[in-house]
Design brief:
The chain has 181 residues and is mainly alpha-helical. Helices cover 44% and strands 9% of the residues. Strands 1-5-2 form a 3-stranded antiparallel sheet. Helix 3 crosses helix 5.
Amino acid sequence: MDEEERAEDGVKASEQPAQKKEKPSVASRGIPSSESLYLPSHYSGELRAFQDKEERPMKFMWRLEEVMNFVFPKRYQAKYHEVALAFMQEMTSKLEMGGKEIGAFIASHGISKATFYNRVLPRLKRVGMLKVERETIVALEGKRKFRPMKISLSGTFGNYLVKIGESWQAIVDDARSRKKE
């Protein structure tokens, strides 16, 4: 209701409800670490060279440890890096694991369940390295539901980064071709 409508309804301006004052918001502190990837400077020496001086990609593959460093940087998250690397090594040999196998892996490596289930697994899932599926099963006797977990490798992480890379290459190529004209 605007002022004219309130005046028509017999409500005086002094009787109008007080406007809520907005609290000043705190400036952003940057991207939450749970939603970021670690990209060290390409010339830092922290990465193996991946392109030549003419910016042509070199023909080699980064090892699993190097790829995991982008998700859990060893320099800043050493424990998470160690846990994620060990788990992904296990996953690459099995391709798929169920809840019992995951529990056995955690126990055999002396990993904290909280670290694995609250930090490592959610991030590997979020970036698209793993796919987590659950099946709801209802036991007939007690009518108790349980949801066994199955984790498998996912190509989404690679597809995501390839799409970003190809898009950037197209932007650079387009800009360079316009410059030559």
